[in-house]
Amino acid sequence: MSVTESSITYGSHELAFTVEVRPRRTLSISVHPDQRVHVLSPPDVPFAQIQARVTRRAAWILRQQAYFQQFRPSTPARRYVSGETHLYLGRQYRLRLEEALKSQVKLIRGRLVVHTPRPADAEHTAQLLRQWYQQHAAEQFQAVLQQCLPLLSEYQFPMPTLHQRYLQKRWGSCSPAGRITLNTDLIRADKSSIAYVILHELCHLIEPNHSRRFYRLLAKILPDWERRKEKLEKALS
């Protein structure tokens, strides 16, 4: 039995799915309550045929995912008031708003302290925190990238450039020229999760697609990548 992960693009959607090869006669597609897409396939079915089947069933998959989504608890909306907790590098920090003439954000003794002339303005506080996250994301992501590069020193690929912005549905992306873009929200995860995403994208500089070769490479470089992926999804769901 073998299990691989892949994805297809359907309109504006990227549909990820796992393929499990078993001794069986027919190919089946199922959508789990957590929205995972699982394909069971006989050993002799070409991967291109599996992708084509998923593409044909994409509209049905999206309907199933939308159905299950209505039963999932939604994360409470941020109110940006004192006492609320916010994540940074995997740790929870309690927010404290302090009125001041100059706006700035600092970590002080385990608290995320926002100095602002408008402490009652939640939108302004949200903007200050976003700017603070962006600044620290640029620094932390670059540091983790430098720690990851030696793990792939035996391979030839373009020296990557690192960028970050808020992304809607993915943690990162990579261009053939070596431009890696990370979701700024990753700064809320711990460094091991950030390293997983960076290594995932670096592996794409060697193996562009989510093929079996790609996952063999990722498992060689990062044997516990599945545990890190699950940890990331649970922490920032």
From TrEMBL:
CDD domains: M48_yhfN_like (cd07344). Residues 25-234 form the YgjP-like metallopeptidase domain. InterPro entries: UTP_pyrophosphatase-like, YgjP-like_metallopeptidase. Pfam families: YgjP-like. Gene3D superfamilies: Metalloproteases ('zincins'), catalytic domain (3.30.2010.10). PANTHER family: UNCHARACTERIZED PROTEIN YGJP, UTP PYROPHOSPHATASE. This is M48 family metallopeptidase. It comes from Hymenobacter lucidus. The lineage of its organism: Bacteria, Pseudomonadati, Bacteroidota, Cytophagia, Cytophagales.
